[in-house]
Design brief:
alpha+beta; Jelly Rolls; 5-stranded antiparallel sheet; 3-stranded antiparallel sheet; 8 strands; UPF0047 protein MTH_771; YjbQ-like_sf
Length: 143
């Protein structure tokens, strides 16, 4: 794909209300809606969590796998370990889990669609809920 000098950039914030302390939410359709609204056909799309106790990741939307991911997070970063940050607001595990998963993902946009693999979905990981959250989706490219 050739891309000229001029690109369009479209940004939209998505509100999200979570209901559990740890919750993995498939946001693929929400993000796809932003892409459609952008009118951009070829370029890149970035999904960014505006919070330090949440994350964005890409993986398969299969219930047992999602349960395994939650178990992996608990095993790797237990809630009840002795963390220095807990002296401030008792959620260090949430911050550390967010570091492991990452705060954003970028996906190629080709012919108006996200170029995700067959089994890939975009997830918002709530790691310190329930809360009201905001996700920033930015699309850059050519219409």
């Amino acid at each position: 794909m050739k891309c000229g000098v001029f690109m369009e950039v479209y940004t939209q914030e998505l509100p999200l209300r979570t209901s559990r302390r740890v919750e993995l939410i498939d946001i693929t359709s929400m993000v796809s809606g932003v892409l459609e609204s952008s009118g951009i056909r070829n370029g890149i799309l970035n999904v960014f969590s505006r919070h330090s106790t949440s994350a964005i990741f890409i993986n398969e939307n299969e219930s047992r796998l999602l349960s395994d991911i939650e178990s992996m997070l608990e095993g790797t970063v237990p809630v009840d370990a002795s963390y220095g940050h807990n002296a401030i607001d008792n959620n260090a595990d949430s911050h550390l889990r967010a570091v492991l998963l990452g705060g954003s993902q970028t996906v190629p946009v080709i012919n108006g669609s996200m170029d995700l693999g067959t089994w890939q979905s975009i997830f918002f990981a709530e790691l310190d809920g329930p809360r009201n959250r905001r996700i920033r989706v930015s699309v850059a490219g050519k219409p």
